[in-house]
Amino acid sequence: MKDASNPTINIAHYQQRERELQSKLDELIDFVENASLPLHWVDGNGIIIWANQAELDLLGYTKDEYIGFSITDFHTDENVISDILTRLTNNETLQNYASKLRCKNGSIKHVLINSNVLTKNGEFVHTRCFTRDITELNEASIRRDIILQELEKSEAKLKMVIASVNLGTWEWEPKTGLLTWSDECKKIYGLPLDKEITFEIYVQHLHPDDKERVVQAIQDCLDGAYGGEYDIVLRIIRFDDGSTRWVRAQGKVYFEAGGKAERFIGTVVDITEKKQEDLRKNDFIAMVSHELKTPLTAVKSYIQILLAKEKMEGNAFKLNALTRAEVQTQKMTLMIQDFLSLARLEEGKIRLNKEVFELHNLIEEIAGDAQFLASSHTVKLQDCEDIIIRADRDKIGQVLMNLLSNAIKYSPKGGSIVIGCVKLGNKVKVFVKDDGIGISLADQQKLFDKFYRVKNEKIKTVSGFGIGLYLVSELLRYHKTKIEVESREDEGSTFYFTMNMQQAQL
Ligand code: ADP
Known about the structure:
By secondary structure, this protein is α+β, with helices and mostly antiparallel strands. It has helices at residues 7-33, 53-59, 63-66, 78-89, 135-164, 183-189, 199-204, 208-222, 272-313, 316-346, 359-373, 393-409, 441-446, 468-478, and strands at 39-42, 48-51, 94-102, 108-120, 123-133, 168-173, 178-181, 229-237, 244-255, 261-270, 354-358, 378-382, 388-392, 416-424, 427-434, 484-488, 492-500. The chain has a five-stranded antiparallel beta sheet. Bound molecules: adenosine-5'-diphosphate. Adenosine-5'-diphosphate is lined by residues 406-407, 409-410, 434, 436-437, 439, 447, 452-454, 459, 464-470, 493.
């Protein structure tokens, strides 16, 4: 117990209390002086009478350059600081008041000020100002505004372009079934602008001959085939007058992390006029090819009869001439076959007659035919035994023949071509490899486009129409696989595709 009557003990006690209070005060001063939040006091005349280190650091001044000066010297906007001071004098509390402060190096800090006034006996003592630096936030928001403005501009441009080419846009969420068509899209389909659309109604308006193919292509894309890329030419039945129109639809599926289709977005454009023109050209090509086929078959038969005769009689000159004539007629037959396939493809009339067969036999036949047409090259077979596939035999034959004749056409005389297979689990990779002129990366991108031919001095005398590889890629697309190429200029090319192998024995 303390003895209140003992003055020595009392003094010691008060001295102890004072030391404790001083220590608390020092801690408090240290706390505000070194707080990470910038703070300052301004007196009734607008003079800064105290600022902590964070405030000085924020603006880059020393104590001598800041304290004792008018706060108005540091605000960039006179009206703002005068408003702040008026409000504080009227005893208002400022909350997140936006202002701009001038730094020593001339830069500007965007800040939010929170402040109120300390009064004693109704007298203004000083303001208590908390300054929050929002410069970075502000810059980010300015940048965001600029980006938004740019986006708005480019969206407006995009809209103008879309409108000027009469391009319809659509978006489908397979999970919810929500299908949205732009006005232009509705116009193409003849759907009133105020009408909504569903996927089921859309399917009802596909042309009966295209329905199965289109629905299958959509399903394939949703399942991730072709990287979710959708590009299809189809016929639709317009909602308003029931007329048939040709459209080209392109799109892309966006997948969730788990691989499920999330959104399918794309465009549609009416190509009826162009399609009709193409069909007229097609009809012409088909008609000419067809008309050439019959006399050519007759010529081939006569040549074969004469060849058989000459083989017995043994006239070397005639035998040689007739063999060359047979080679030429065979080349013409292949060309006509390609033209007829192209015409059928354009009309959407390609049908696959799938059968199960041994790949080796087909490759042997095709390699033999190719060798017959080009004695200048050697065609080698590699590892294609014991492979059974299910496909349209004639069409796979046509694919291989096109690849082989290209390998021959685009590699120097005396070169060797390899047609071979690599087994990869339950799949087989079929390839045709040459050591020819090769193809640049830029050309590889366009190689499979219809009528595309590489512009290259070395091959300007090599004839062709640029339809072979287009047919190859389309025929393989019908088989749900795709043609790929690896090539380097002057080193050669390898064209390849993969197919599922069948387990069943023949
Ligand atoms: P075509 O041979 O009738 O021109 P293709 O569609 O078969 O048409 O081939 C397109 C182009 O691709 C050819 O013009 C040629 O430039 C290039 N090409 C095709 N195959 C090869 C190859 N094996 N080596 C080099 N270039 C090739």
